[in-house]
Amino acid sequence: MMAAPSHAKLLPLITKSEIKAQITKIAKEIHRDYLEKDLVLVMVLKGAICITADLMREIGLPLDLQVVQAKSYDGMERGKLNVLGIDTLNVTGRDVILVDDIYDTGYTLSAVAAQISEKKPASLKTCVHLQKKDVKGQKKVKIDYPLFTIPNSFVVGYGLDYNEQYRELPGIFFLEQP
Ligand code: 5GP
Ligand code: MG
User: Fold this and answer.
1) What are the tens digits of pLDDT across the range 54-91?
2) Which burial class, exposed, middle or buried, applies to 19 when counting CB atoms under 10 A from its CB (0-12, 13-18, 19+)?
């Protein structure tokens, strides 16, 4: 595994308390929208671990947590995705919210959503922690529960990694490299 260069610099973008406030707001909306529903949260590993863990404890409704893992094939063109765990999802006829860490080109979220749709959930909505703006060729998929919009730069922390580093940081940081 490649370590981050020692000269890499972390610049704070979103603090722990800003994230907490936004989660509280979105969780209230989800609570209101999913009363009396059969709520399933499907989180995309690994990046969505922090947002999902914090959000599910604020929603205040019974829910079923399920996971998929989105993996890019190494050495192939960008966008070639392998989604693990679709086979074992139990979502047919249920009310699903797909939770992901970041919306960059939008390819991952739309590909995972399309595969979940094939399992015929009663409803399917999306919750995304960070949406990048000004991304060339970004897919226009509706995000039902967005938390933050950020500039088009590489970020880490709060579940997001750079070569498996920095996921444990409590806030979001730009990773600046010369
Ligand atoms: P997509 O381009 O398909 O929307 O995003 C693909 C995946 O790339 C995301 O789910 C995320 O795992 C990763 N990704 C995109 N932008 C960033 C970023 O700024 N930082 C990190 N750590 N991962 C990113
Ligand atoms: Mg991801």
Assistant:
1) 999 999 999 999 999 998 755 445 657 889 999 999 99
2) buried
**Bridge partners (DSSP) listed for residue 124:** 96
Which pTM does this prediction carry?
A: 0.93
User: How far away, in angstroms, is 103 Cα from ligand 1 center?
Assistant: 7
101 part of the active site:
no
Q: What is the dihedral of CA 22, 23, 29, 32, to 10 degrees?
A: -150
160 lines ligand 1 (CB under 6 A): yes
- Residue 132: both structure tokens together: 């990048």
- Distance CA(134)–CA(131), nearest Å, equals 10
